[in-house]
Structure formats: C-alpha cells, structure tokens
Write the structure tokens for this entry.
Amino acid sequence: MADKNLIGIIGIGRFGLSLARGLLGEGKTIIAIDRELSSLEPLRNQVDDLLVIENLTMEELKAAGIDNCSTVIVSIGKNIEANLLATMNAIELGVPRVISKAMNEEHGRLLRRIGAETVNPEVEMGQKLAKTLTAKLTLDVLPIGEDFSIIELVMNDKFADKNIMELNFRGKYNINIVAIVRDEKAHGSINPTTVLKAGDILVVSGDNKAVKEFEAINSKNV
C-alpha cells in the first residue's frame, strides 16, 4: 500500500529541487532520483534516499522504492525519452498519482494518454503571468497529495523591500517560501536576510488551508 507521506521526484533540476524543498518543509519523506550526483548535492543531509540512476527501468525504480510512493513527480526536462520511460514505469508500478513535466503540447498529450497528469512550468509561467497580472496574482497551483500544495504567485508589492525574517511567513501564515523567481531566474538559496523586491514571483508551499488563506492575503487590495 502506498505511503501517503512518501513522494518520489525523478529529475532534480530547478523545478524538482523547488518541489523537494517545499515538500521537506511540510514534513514529507522524499525519494530523490537523478542521473547525475551533482544534481542531488543540494539535498545532501536533507534527504535520506538520494539515488543516482542512469537507466530508469521498472526494476531500478522498484528497487528505489518508487512503488511505495503515493505520488511521483517526473521533472526530467529536455530528455523526453527518459521522461516518458520514467512516467510509464511509475504508472505500471502502480503509483496512485504520477505528475510529469511536459516540454510541449505534443509531449503533454502523450503523457496524458498513458495516464499521467502534466505540468509545464517554464512554458506556462510567461503565458499565465501575462494573463494574470491584470486580474489576480496566483500563477499556478500544484496539489501534492490530499492536504498539501505548492503555488506560484506574483508577490504583492506590500511585501517588497522587507526581508524574510521581518515578514515571518512561516510564523504568520504557516507557509514556506521555496524559491524566488527574479528576472526569469529561480533562486532557491533563501535565508532570513533575503530581501524581497517588487515584481518577485514566489514559489510557496503549505497545507491547502494555509496556502488558500495566503493567496487571499497576497491578492488583497490589488
């Protein structure tokens, strides 16, 4: 039976690393897999199961414990063949929910056809930002499990020019700031002295209630 607190992430690039940090902040257990040891280094001493797997066969993924996960996120980007293979094998291993990063619409159709949910953070960010800035500030919501979500939103300017310690997002709103996207670059190294700037895009994680409440606070008076 799948462990609802165990989540697998296959491919630890920018997107996968942000997911891992957000999930760890919520007390989830992570299996992190990548073909390069260097990609896993930022999670050293935070995740017990850091696995270098070059060939994402069903046997290798099962040996890694992927079949015990309630959710698997395949965040492999440019290598579409590896992305499809990992997604298909996770599904065939019986993982209840598989979310896979799609590089384009055709790739997304293939993923959905084999039973995966899809997300395309790079392509969708610009499109959603253009549509969203005139209406609301939330760009995307990625539910993970039954009670936890990661959202991407344009920061309200009322938080600008203040540091993370002063804003105290964790204490006030029960959320974690996983990453900051500034000038189209994601920054995951966040500390108490990090100062937010107008126009920053925040990647925020938390339980569904806390995330929804913060979304409303962030959108207020916009």
